[in-house]
Fold:
Amino acid sequence: MLNIDICFFIILKSLTIYGIILPMEYKYELHCHTGCVSRCGRVEPEEIVKLYKNEGYNGIVVTDHYSPMTFKPNWCPQKQIDFYLSGYRRMKAAAGNDFTVLLGIELRHYGTANDYLIYGIDEDFLYNAGNLMTVMEKHVYQLAHSRGYLVYQAHPFRVGMRRCNPDYIDGVEVYNGKTDLKANTKALEWAKANNKLMVSGSDFHVVKNLARGGIITDKPINNNSELLEVLKKQNFRRLERY
Ligand SMILES: [Zn+2]
Ligand SMILES: [Zn+2]
Structure:
């Protein structure tokens, strides 16, 4: 029996290597903070890649905090965005060809505790957009849309958050790995009531947040335009672990 199992495994492995059978499921983390950029993050990008590969994930969207906690008060685009991108760049360099690393942000404006996940962004946008912390929801939404990005309110029922005007978001993070079931359930109901897109993310900061959320797709995601397509069509299953 054991021998048959081993033979079957070897045949399956060979077919997979030669591209005849490809894995049918792909897992992506959509909410992840690096220790070198997000002050509350505790794990360095190279280690995050290793941990997620071990968990069978195929990629990560790096969503470091773009917030007053991250940046010094005097806005200097080149320096600050260089720093902001360093976690993403280090993770991308460590990932190799078999693991997708994409750039996202978790934006917080001055004077509020609300967080917004923006998917699809690129480096040039960040260098040229000015200080996004001064630009409130409506304007960020318009700016993001002019470039084809998607904006989601992160963990909207966590203590201290206020629900933003649903007209200024595309979607809602309905599962957040650092938020309890009750608050996530409220987020899900709010998203449904407002007919919003939905995502799931671990909100990875420390090892205990590892692989609690994300999405499962039946096609690989290699770049931000493929990610946006999957998210717009809701062409995935949400990963949710309590
Ligand atoms: Zn954080
Ligand atoms: Zn976060």
